[in-house]
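ugh ok fine here u go
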Amino acid sequence: MYERFAKPQLSTVFNPDEPSIYIRHQVGQKIAGGYAIERLFEDPPTGFYAEGRVALDSANPPVLTIRGYGSWFPFERVLEDTPDVFVAGLKRQFHAAIKQGAIDWLKYHAERGNKPDLIGESLGGKVAQQIAAQYSDYIRSTVTFNPLGVSQKLLKTSKAKSVFHYFTLGERYAFWANKGDYIPGYFFIISKNGESCYYKLEEAIIRRAKFSRKAMFQLRKRKIIVSIVAQLILLKRHNELILNRPRPIVIRVERNVLSLAELESECRVLQH
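structure:
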């Protein structure tokens, strides 16, 4: 359910009851998955947007869900989000979370014996790490999906506990965006079918486009059609729901910080 909370899905954008954070909800609204919206936190100048959700079943904890890189359908807050995407040490949205009361909301529930979970995808995963690193006493667990990295300084000073990072097999954007690192926790590689023939075909297209971090914005030098197809593949991987599929492949990686190459190498070894 947390993956559905964190990731955007074009097929559900016009269903107001869907739980994706990329769909705007109203305070008091009940959404799929058995939760209701208790608080909205928004800071237009920085693009920060999050929802405080409470479970209709009191057995489940509250959840602070942080939106990732803008809402692409409709086009909203993308420009405001951009600085925090490409600079690992930038904390505009972290400070916006404090300003708009998101931390107070976490504290409120924690002091009443019901610590919330904290989740985010992409940029939302970066902000979630920044919050968890400093306010761990208010948080039960932190769950990120294809998160962007944070600064080395934060990595070394993080006090976060129970952190779970999920990376889709073949993910690129999380590693390309800002060359940041990830606060210590449990790391997982997830995929629908592992390195299937379909996955290998996609990888061939991506290699054909000759993508690298430096080449991301140099499409004029590539065959434009191949480059567009490769970008669509990468965007799909970044946002695709994996854990909701039948029998997904989930591999735990026994190390704190991994590069893209190490993630893929580890996945191949463990699968075999």
